[in-house]
Design goal:
This protein is α/β, with parallel strands linked by helices. The protein is built from 16 helices and 32 strands. The longest helix is centred in the first third of the chain and has 15 residues. The protein starts with 7 loop residues before the first strand and ends in a 7-residue tail after the last strand.
Amino acid sequence: MVTRLAQIAKVALNSPLPQLDRLFDYAVPEHLEGIALPGVRVRVPFGRSKNPLDGFIVEIAQESDFEGKLSEIAEVISSARVLDSDVYQLCRAVADRQASSVADVFRLAIPDRSVAVEKKWLESFLETPNSLKGSSKRETALINPVIRDSVPVWVNEVVEAARDVLQRGGSTIIALPDFRDQSLVLTALHDAQLAEHVVDYSSSVAKSKRYSSFLSCLSREKSIVVGSRAVIYAPVRNLVQVIIWDDADSSHQEPSSPYSHTREVALLRQQIQQCDLKVFGHARSAEIARYLNLNFFTDSTKAFPIPKIANSDSDIRVDSLAWRAIRSGLEQGAVLVQVASKGTSSSAYCTQCNSRAMCKSCNGPIWIDQRNMTRCRWCNAGNLDHTCKSCGSAKLRQGKPGSSRTVAEFGKAFPGARIIESTGDEPVLTAPDKSLVIATPGAEPLAKGGYAAVIILDANVALSKDSLRATEDAVRSWANAIALMHADGRAVVVGLAGTLATKFSLWSMVEIANHELVTRTELRFPPAIRLASVGTTAELMQEVLPAVSKIAGVEILGPISITDKGTEVESRVLLKFEYSTGLALAEAIRALSLKISAGHQRFSAKSGRAMRPIRVKMDDQEVI
């Protein structure tokens, strides 16, 4: 008689509860052997609950460290092996780095299941080899900021890099900030006769299409996968390179747990799979400047002609230099005017004491929208009953013009010109010839052949934003706008003076980024160090603080009270720490969260939904 060796499935439960964030051992019943394989979805019993939990098999073993009797897997939901081993390692690494749970990362890495799509895929699925790797190179480059043959040069650079890898039998992941960049790259790949190898992984597609794209990655020997943040987890075969465009764009930052950044997740994946990592942009982030200074990245920038840029430090919003550039540009083609904010005004001010009007909910700046409603630019809350905190007056005046008021003013100044407004709320994708486009940062449409002139207004407003990243964000948005200009076009930046004006006009992006890095290093702010935030109720904070203060190598700032409409909604502390301390701190905070938050409930003040008693952001971008 032959004794059957019991198979043990190590299962990662798809539960956000921190106490379940580990692998659990389950016995594989005889009738599921050969089906219960690593990567498949399963349903398992847990504790005394009558409802089984969903999870993924990570590994099949012959032994278990658990001394009691193991429960058996209740059901194999599908034979599709959707959790790739490399992707699981990546999810685990991201969760460990961000003090999150692996289930939070699964939410980003594995799309919602579509039964119909999966059944059709299984009928034709064939296991594909996964042996080709990159050379583990990490490089960054500034791309020529110009339109060539009606296509931005950076798009062609990305397409050529992907084509080169494809010809060698490898796959490429391309992470882009928004739908417009994705559309440009997808169109260029189609025009380059590479469409059969392209996987559209963008977030704008329907859920079933997204799942189809996910499964397609598992079955293609080589592919080019294009998408936004979540594309970095795509389970491609033979991954040779990852390309990130414009890493400083805020769209690369995950707004919910695990609060990760595309760049940092890509670095983890590069180390796990030894693929190449390329970060391209028109401007350089302080984070990339730090990596270059550490020799962790190499600079592969190729020489290119710098764009023609004139600076004006005039106090007049649209001075004579800008007017002349607009008139001359309209004779040759389309003209782009970038303004700092949308609406009729960037901010509102008290008519009596001239104080800036601030939101009663979050203390953010108040503006007046197109419907003459007073709203907050930060939280979008209405402030109909606003009164000045300094003098008590209820009357407001408009500050510097936003996009809507600029359109109205330019309509009078340039009669007969076709004027178009493009904002993040109502973006325009393409600009007609000889049109005058008024756009907010990030919403600039593409003009065929490129703009004849690009005018940057409100430069001083962009630089005065209440953020440590104000200069970096402003330079990036200006550079991206000027990059939409054709090679013979001219740019004018109004309201910019001093050293930054000189460096920007010479397109000295390396010097600007290095200066930003030096400044933040002196202040001990990211990216010189990491900055985390821990938020909870005032009651629980009394338990959190003593425990956090015992963690070595961590500087504590706070606690501070976060209010909404005068009511405290959260008590928050900020933690400054070195990169070398990150993993140990994340583990300590996770253990602390598990210990202190047990049995506590917390609900959102805005939505009323249940939320975690302790919220942890290991890299909090909002506070700087």
